[in-house]
Write a structure and sequence with these properties.
Largest sheet: 6 strands, mixed
Distance between the termini: 49 Å
Strand content: 15-25%
Shape: globular
Radius of gyration: 21 Å
Oligomer: single chain
Strand order of the largest sheet: 10-9-8-11-13-12
Mean pLDDT: 88
Number of helices: 7
Length: 291
């Protein structure tokens, strides 16, 4: 038996990085019967075939730190929420949806503001929105390799996924981390002003300075249907210092009077953009959990 990590899954094959090298594996049939599917990022034990030592079968999946359904990945330490200041236009509502997803799964969000050379004023504004959250905020651009050293420091010895709109530059950023990756990158459609998907399967790449990164499609499809409305404020870290000061216990921080969270928004301690995202996600969660 060998132990390893699934670094790619495609077409029913799982590629497991082990001390003996990369092994192409199938999953044993019992996984399907038990309703368990191996995921990229899983720590597994495998058994090599007698005929070919570079092929084998996944025998067991180790307990997961966390797992996501869309896309099917496991054991993430942090999520780099990537926002472009232009081409495509920044979508802070999506970014906040992703930070909530990360918080709910015990994954550390990091904000990466990319393509800052296109609009430095917009980059400064977006950075200000997230500086109140306590999240690490990195500004990046191809120009002068801006943000490269800061990204390497954040990524070192961690398992990290990049997430965000198509076209924001996730694959381009990952390509800058190692010349060995060679991920396909895309352009932004002139007609729709949206990025074209270039990542078609989930893959885990080993970083030359320690750690792994995912380049994965699908995180942008995350929806808040699993978040209970009464728990949502817990996933906005800048609100935590204010939620106990509300007049009413169980305050939703939406329409109630004497709400400390709304007072913090008025005082500028919580940004209007983040609060509006909270309200939108609260209403969505409330609609999905009618009692």
């Amino acid at each position: 038996m060998l132990k390893g990590t699934i670094v790619k899954g495609i077409g029913g094959f799982y590629y497991v990085q082990t001390e003996a090298g990369l092994i192409e594996c199938r999953a044993r049939g019992r996984f399907r019967k038990e309703g368990e599917i191996p995921m990229v990022g899983d720590k597994v034990t495998i058994k090599q075939t007698a005929e070919e030592v570079d092929k084998g079968y996944v025998e067991a999946i180790m307990p997961r730190k966390n797992s996501f359904i869309r896309p099917p990945v496991a054991n993430i330490d942090q999520l780099i929420v990537t926002i472009a200041v232009g081409a495509p236009a920044p979508n802070l509502r999506l970014a906040d949806r992703l930070t909530v997803a990360a918080e709910a799964m015990g994954v550390t969000p990091v904000i990466c503001i990319n393509k800052t050379d296109l609009d430095e004023e917009a980059a400064t504004h977006i950075a200000a929105v997230y500086q109140t959250t306590g999240y690490t905020v990195i500004t990046a651009s191809r120009e002068g390799n801006l943000g490269y050293d800061a990204l390497c420091e954040v990524l070192q010895d961690k398992i990290t996924a990049f997430a965000g709109n198509s076209g924001v530059g996730k694959s381009s950023i990952i390509n800058r981390l190692s010349t060995d990756f060679g991920l396909e990158t895309g352009t932004v459609s002139e007609k729709t002003k949206r990025g074209r998907h270039t990542t078609r399967h989930t893959e885990l790449f080993e970083l030359p300075f320690g750690g792994y990164v995912f380049d994965t499609p699908g995180f942008s499809a995350y929806a808040a249907e699993d978040i209970l409305p009464e728990n949502l404020a817990n996933y906005f870290p800048e609100m935590k210092d204010y939620t106990d000061g509300c007049r009413f216990s169980g305050c939703a921080h939406v329409a109630e009077p004497s709400c400390s969270v709304k007072e913090a928004v008025e005082a500028g301690n919580i940004t209007q953009e983040r609060y509006e995202s909270y309200v939108a996600l609260y209403q969505e969660a409330k609609a999905n959990h009618k009692y």
